[in-house]
Amino acid sequence: MVNLPKIYIICGSLFAFGVIENLFVFYHTKTSYLQKIRSNYTLAFINAISINSMFIFLLTWITTKPVFSGIIPLCIPNPHIQFLISFLLLDFFMYTWHRLMHEVPWGWKFHQVHHSELNLNTSSSFRFHSIEIFTSKILQLGWIWLLGIDLEFYFFYEIIFIVIVLFQHSNIAVPFCLDKIMSYVIVTPNFHRIHHSQNGYEANSNYSSVLSLWDFVFRTFKWHKNPLLIQIGMVEYPQQKNTLQLLKMPFTKKKGR
User: Fold this and answer.
1) Is the dihedral of CA 46, 159, 100, 254 positive or negative?
2) At what angle do helices 79-103 and 151-169 cross, to 10 degrees?
3) How far apart are CA 177 and CA 4, in angstroms?
4) Distance from chain centroid for Cα 64
5) Residue range 198-207: average pLDDT?
6) For residues 233 and 228, what is the distance between their CA atoms, to the nearest angstrom?
7) Which of 122, 129, 156, 223 is the most buried (most CB within 10 A)?
8) What is the DSSP string of 149-176?
9) How many CB atoms lie within 10 A of CB 60?
10) CA distances from residue 72 to 21, 69, 136, 139, 145 in whole angstroms, order as listed
11) How many other C-beta atoms lie within 10 A of the C-beta of residue 221?
12) Residues 207-235: what's their mean pLDDT?
């Protein structure tokens, strides 16, 4: 039952952001919306069927095993503080994982599938190679088990995570000043667009997923004065890719920046 609100919120967010990004467009392109989203949603379906369903099963199993309660419950008795710490540490994991995907050559081979996106939109949130998703989920399971993060705490974070990630990848033209104010708390479209720049110096920044504070703390934050000038994608992959080409991409010779 805990998954039902998550499904409703995700579907509602997908619909809402999808409509808004077509009404208030940031990047104008000649590519049809269907062409932009087709491969990404196919990848999303493959990953959901092959990996996410397995992850939910394993997550439920490890969080109900009484062998080890985890570090957080052992050290912090207050459930409200447990929730806050759990949220922060889950978000810190995502920052660290994302940064490693850029800095470790093996990780970048697979993460370039995400960065080869030419037209950022809500579906770009799902444009990840299955091996990257599988590896991240396995490591995240270990993190959750070690810390003893409550299942409900995780699902709450996951809902917020997905909504923010959909928002930050969307092609919504958020007013510049409003976007910048929000970016001091959460990852916004303009905050994240520089991360998808073809310029490697710009792209190797702004790794945060939900809370932008990690980029400020670890000094990986960059801001672009005119996000419309950011060239999205990778120069190594100037053409749209279908799903099969995206899955084969890490095994080709091109590795990008």
Assistant:
1) positive
2) 50
3) 35
4) 27
5) 96
6) 14
7) 122
8) --HHHHHHHHHHHHHHHHHHHS-B---H
9) 12
10) 40, 8, 21, 18, 10
11) 18
12) 96
What mean pLDDT is predicted for residues 12-20? 94
Nearest to 83 by CA among 188, 160, 142, 136: 160
Spatial distance between the Cα atoms of 126 and 33, rounded to a whole number of angstroms: 15
DSSP 117-130: -SS--GGGGG---H
Sign (positive or negative) of CA dihedral 17, 154, 203, 111: negative
One-letter amino acid identity for 13?
A: S
Confidence band of 70 (pLDDT split at 50, 70, 90): confident
Q: Which residue, 70, 67, 68, 66, is CA-closest to 82?
A: 70
Distance CA 13, CA 21 (A): 12
- Euclidean distance between CA atoms 64 and 60, whole angstroms: 6
- The answer to whether 190 touches 224, Cβ cutoff 8 Å, is yes
The residues that bridge with 172 in the sheet, in sequence order, are 25
Which amino acid is it at 170?
A: S
Rg of the chain taking only CA atoms, in angstroms: 18
Residues 6+ apart with CB under 8 A from 179: 188, 189, 190, 191
Question: Whole-structure pTM over 0.85, yes or no?
Answer: yes
Could you give the CA distance from residue 118 to residue 235 in angstroms, rounded to a whole number?
A: 10
